[in-house]
Design brief:
Helix content: 40-55%
CATH class of the largest domain: Alpha Beta
Structural class: alpha/beta
Strand content: 15-25%
Distance between the termini: 46 Å
CATH superfamily of the largest domain: Nitrogenase molybdenum iron protein domain
Order of helices and strands: EHEEHEHEHEHHEEHEEHEHHHEHHE
Number of domains: 2
Largest sheet: 7 strands, mixed
CATH architecture of the largest domain: 3-Layer(aba) Sandwich
Number of helices: 13
Radius of gyration: 20 Å
Length: 316
């Protein structure tokens, strides 16, 4: 089977299913595992992502206002790799190539018989009519002809999340404290608060998510709304930014946090994390994302996870 993955998350899913050898094409953002980086790249971005977050947001909004796509699909390259299965998404036109552009590219190369699998997770699992990340792992596995293995992989990830939940609940019971209020920031300028599966990850890690409910898309908050919050733990994990990239916005973050009338205790518990590899990528590493949240939220109870993930987050 010849598989094209146009999402970093679906590339990771294919890898965890043991089908990496079937990949014949990837997106420009696919970077894990490192072994996929030599494959044909079939998408590109129209936005200069080396800019500051405010400039990126401005350019994205301008492109969308003009009813243009943020990303391009290389139809000629897609035809050359002759896929049997194409993995894409129809959740967010800002996060990755849109399904409409993928469908147009497939029509252009007259690729009848290609199975198009579109992912749209807003929760950790399939709940209340919403698609979940674990369910998407099973859907990809079914498309690749390894449905039973996909269920085992998804169940293994569910089991790890359940075990982490039990540990965090035990830590809360032992301390007698209430769940700390956790604010997760998904974009810096303007400030967007983590939604979709983020409230679930916060809850699993022993915190209480602020602003958003599970499945809700990330809302944008102005300074006044942000100042009205009373968080106890703040995690900044910008979508698509690793730690090095986020550090380029240090002055913006310093000014933002410094202007908030939050308590000194809250400002002492502001962390930045790798939002590119974790948190914003709906794939297997959301389990590690929950572990990072547990290490941040309850450091006294999760020393092992603080050590395990020390390279992926840091205090602001």
């Amino acid at each position: 089977m010849r598989v094209v993955s146009l999402l970093p998350s679906s590339t990771e899913i294919v890898h965890v299913l043991g089908a990496e050898g079937d990949l014949v094409g990837i997106s420009h953002e696919c970077d894990h595992p490192a072994s996929v980086r030599g494959l044909p790249v079939l998408t590109s971005s129209k936005i200069d992502i080396t800019q500051l977050s405010a400039d990126i947001d401005r350019d994205v909004r301008r492109v969308l206002t003009d009813a243009l796509a943020v990303y391009d699909v290389d139809a000629e390259g897609l035809g050359e790799v002759r896929p049997d299965v194409v993995l894409t998404q129809d959740l967010c036109d800002v996060c990755a190539v849109s399904i409409r552009d993928v469908e147009a590219a497939l029509r252009e190369i007259a690729s009848e018989g290609v199975q198009l699998v579109s992912l749209k997770p807003t929760r950790l699992d399939d709940l209340e009519g919403a698609h979940g990340v674990m369910g998407d792992i099973e859907r990809v596995a079914a498309a690749l002809g390894c449905a039973d293995h996909g269920r085992r992989v998804a169940d293994g990830l569910r089991g790890r999340l359940h075990a982490l939940r039990e540990r965090s609940e035990a830590a809360l019971a032992a301390s007698g404290a209430a769940r700390p209020r956790v604010l997760t920031i998904e974009w810096i300028d303007p400030v967007m608060v983590g939604g979709t599966w983020m409230p679930e990850l916060v809850e699993i890690a022993g915190g209480a998510a602020m602003v958003t409910e599970p499945g809700q898309h990330a809302p944008t908050l102005d300074r006044e709304a942000l100042a009205a919050l009373d968080p106890e733990v703040i995690l900044v994990k910008p979508c698509g930014f690793d730690l090095a990239r986020t550090s380029l916005e240090q002055s913006t973050l310093d000014e933002l946090i410094g202007a908030m009338p939050w308590s000194d205790a809250a400002k002492a518990r502001v962390f930045v994390a790798d939002g590119n590899a974790f948190f914003n990528r709906p794939g297997p590493r959301l389990v590690e994302s929950a572990e990072i949240l547990a290490a941040i939220t309850h450091p006294e109870a999760f020393g092992d996870l603080r050590e395990k993930h020390a390279a992926h987050y840091r205090p602001l």
